[in-house]
């Protein structure tokens, strides 16, 4: 774990303190970590996997793989 300092508006902290026990968490810092983790994982899935798929598709095309085959493979991966 790494310790960091964040400046967060007091009203946001107050809201997190009220919501944390409702969500079964011991405190607002646990809730904040949960929010960060949930959103980060969602963004990783959306942006990093798409970016990796697009880069792989371009690399395959650059190496002479039939663009139609590459595009079908990309569609298959994104549908999965």
Task: Please give a quick description of this structure.
This protein is mostly helical and 80 residues long. The chain is built from 3 helices and no strands.
Task: Name a few traits of the molecule.
80 residues, mainly alpha, 3 helices, single chain, elongated
Give a structural overview.
This protein is mostly helical and 80 residues long. 76% of the residues lie in helices and 0% in strands. The longest helix is centred in the middle third of the chain and has 35 residues, at 28-62. The mean pLDDT is 92.
Nearest-angstrom radius of gyration?
Answer: 21 Å
Low-confidence stretches: none
How much helical structure, as a percent, in the residues?
Answer: over 70%
Termini separation comes to: 34 Å
The sequence of SSEs as H and E is HHH
| Inertia-based shape | elongated
Strand content: under 5%
Structural class: mainly alpha
Quick check: average pLDDT?
A: 92
Give me the count of strands: 0
Q: Largest sheet at a glance?
A: none
Number of helical segments with 4 or more residues: 3
Strand and helix layout:
Elements: H1 10-22, H2 28-62, H3 67-79
